[in-house]
Amino acid sequence: MSGTPVPRNPEVASLTRSLKPEETTGNAVAAARYLRALPESNGKLGAVGFCFGGYIVNLLAAVAPDTLNAGVPFYGTPAAKDIRKNIKA
C-alpha cells in the first residue's frame, strides 16, 4: 500500500475539513513571523510537513515568501497555480 492513509478516527478528518482556509493561512504566516522574530532565532526558518502539513508548507512558501527559507513538503497539495510564482524557499 502507498500514499497517505485515511485517518482511522473520523473526528480527525472532520476537524481538518472544518478549518477555514483564511484562518489557517493567517495562523501559519503569524507563526512563521513569530518564530523568525524570537531572540534565539538567526532569522531563518525552515519547515517540514507531511500530508496536510505539506500543504501548509507549500502554502506558506507561496503566500508569505519572506517568511520561509526552506520547505520540505511530503505529499502536500501544491499551492494554487497563480501564487506558485511567489515561492523563493
Characterization of this structure:
The chain is of the alpha+beta class. Helix content is 43%, strand content 11%. The chain has three helices and two strands, in the order H-H-E-H-E. The chain has helices at 10-18, 21-37, 52-63; strands at 46-50, 70-74. Strands 1-2 form a two-stranded parallel sheet. Helix 2 (21-37) crosses helix 3.
Salient structural properties:
89 residues, alpha+beta, two-stranded parallel ribbon, 43% helix, 11% strand, globular
Please report the total strand number as a whole number.
2
Low-pLDDT residue intervals, each spanning 5 or more residues: none
Please indicate the percent range of residues in DSSP E strands (runs of 2 or more): 5-15%
Average residue-wise pLDDT:
89
Characterize the largest beta sheet: strand count, sense, and whether it forms a barrel. Answer: 2 strands, parallel
SS content category? alpha+beta
Taken in chain order, the helices and strands follow as HHEHE
Strands side by side in the biggest sheet: 1-2
> If you compute it from the alpha carbons, what radius of gyration comes out, rounded to the nearest whole angstrom?
14 Å
Percentage of residues assigned to helices: 40-55%
Count of helix runs: 3
